[in-house]
Amino acid sequence: MPKPREKKDNHLLHADAVDSRGKSGVWFGEREEFKSAQAEVIDAIKEKIDWVPIENAVMAVSIDPPGIVVMAPNPSLPGIIVLADGATPENTEHLKQHYTEVVRGVVEGKEIPVQD
Q: What are 7-20's pLDDT values in tens digits?
């Protein structure tokens, strides 16, 4: 049976508490006007990968290792979410690390502060 979504008053604190920072890809250090920075990063990522359109996001398609990766602006936190599925845990981890580094490289190239 579906459960109602829990109420989250402070998304950043909640992310820390449930350890979702590692799942989120790259977090921006700068929180002011982060949505415009997210849009710039996504546009630059599109130039570096094979991708298919998803509204306000990109999905990379990988042949080696096989899998897909969705990169999207986090709707409530300053950063880009990286979601990977490589069919095996090893492939998934490899894809997550590779595309997180693609995002990180774009963010750093745009001189957007990053929070580790």
A: 544 444 444 444 44
